[in-house]
């Protein structure tokens, strides 16, 4: 094995800033936090071990295993949380009163606009502090946009389903007018066996009229 081909310690050392390579962890709204967070591994135990290691050793090179474990756990956690956030917004768009859903969409859109303005202001901040602010704000903008998109999709799907129900209701009403009452029942024109029932009803009607005439003559 070629020793020179192996990465050196300097090339593989991870530091705290390496945890900011991906998007930041999503912010969970309080009103849906219980549903979104249920059953999710929050990586709090691994994070506690990382902090403990840093307190003992004071520098990151001696806590490489803890940093790697936390980064892997955090990536998995954040991916699941983002999906749950979008699913929750989609369900709200489907189920909550339409006026409240529209108000929620307007609120999310206002939040996106505010975050984008803050992101523009943060672009003038130099150094690591500016980078951290832009990193955090950009992640919040993208997450809020996805939530808004999921909410709008839920409302759009509900509108489509309501339209289909109205069309079905109109068809049922129209079908009622195109039927004949035979022996106290409404027989639709497109109902199987309609022609045979009409012939049978004709014979029944003739028999009824004949009996009625006999009764009138007797009277």
Describe, in plain words, how this protein is organized in 3D.
Strands 1-2 form a two-stranded antiparallel ribbon. Helices cover 71% and strands 4% of the residues. It is elongated and about 105 Å long. The protein has 219 residues and is mostly helical. It has seven helices and two strands. β1 and β2 form a beta hairpin. It has helices at residues 9-12, 33-37, 44-57, 64-95, 98-122, 127-177, 194-218, and strands spanning 179-182, 185-188. It has two domains: 10-160, no CATH class; 176-218, no CATH class. α3 runs antiparallel to α4 (64-95), α4 (64-95) packs parallel to α6 (127-177) and α5 (98-122) runs antiparallel to α6 (127-177).
Short description:
Keywords: Coiled coil. The protein has 219 residues and is mainly alpha-helical. It has helices at residues 9-12, 33-37, 44-57, 64-95, 98-122, 127-177, 194-218, and strands at residues 179-182, 185-188.
Q: Could you outline the blueprint of secondary structure elements for this entry?
A:
Blueprint: H1 9-12, H2 33-37, H3 44-57, H4 64-95, H5 98-122, H6 127-177, E1 179-182, E2 185-188, H7 194-218
Antiparallel strand pairs: 1-2
Helix pairs in contact: 3-4, 4-6, 5-6
Q: Tell me the radius of gyration.
A: 35 Å
- The helix/strand series, from N terminus to C terminus, equals HHHHHHEEH
The helix count comes to 7
Instruction: Give the helix level as a range of percent.
Output: over 70%
| Domain tally | 2
């Amino acid at each position: 094995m070629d020793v020179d081909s192996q990465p050196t310690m300097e090339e593989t050392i991870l530091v705290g800033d390496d945890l900011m390579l991906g998007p930041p962890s999503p912010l969970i709204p309080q009103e849906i936090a219980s549903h979104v967070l249920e059953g999710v591994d929050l990586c709090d135990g691994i994070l506690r071990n990382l902090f403990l290691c840093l307190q003992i050793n004071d520098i990151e090179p001696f806590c490489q295993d803890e940093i790697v474990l936390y980064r892997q756990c955090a990536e998995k956690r954040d991916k699941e949380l983002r999906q749950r956030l979008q699913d929750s917004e989609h369900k709200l768009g489907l189920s909550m009163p339409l006026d409240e859903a529209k108000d929620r969409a307007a609120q999310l859109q206002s939040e996106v606009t505010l975050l984008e303005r803050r992101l523009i202001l943060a672009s003038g901040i130099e150094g690591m502090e500016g980078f951290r602010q832009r990193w955090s704000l950009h992640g919040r903008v993208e997450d809020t946009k996805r939530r808004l998109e999921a909410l709008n999709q839920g409302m759009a799907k509900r509108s489509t389903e309501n339209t289909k129900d109205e069309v079905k209701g109109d068809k049922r009403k129209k079908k009622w007018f195109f039927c004949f009452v035979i022996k106290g029942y409404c027989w639709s024109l497109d109902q199987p066996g309609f022609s045979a029932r009409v012939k049978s009803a004709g014979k029944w009607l003739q028999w009824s009229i004949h009996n009625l005439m006999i009764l009138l003559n007797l009277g």
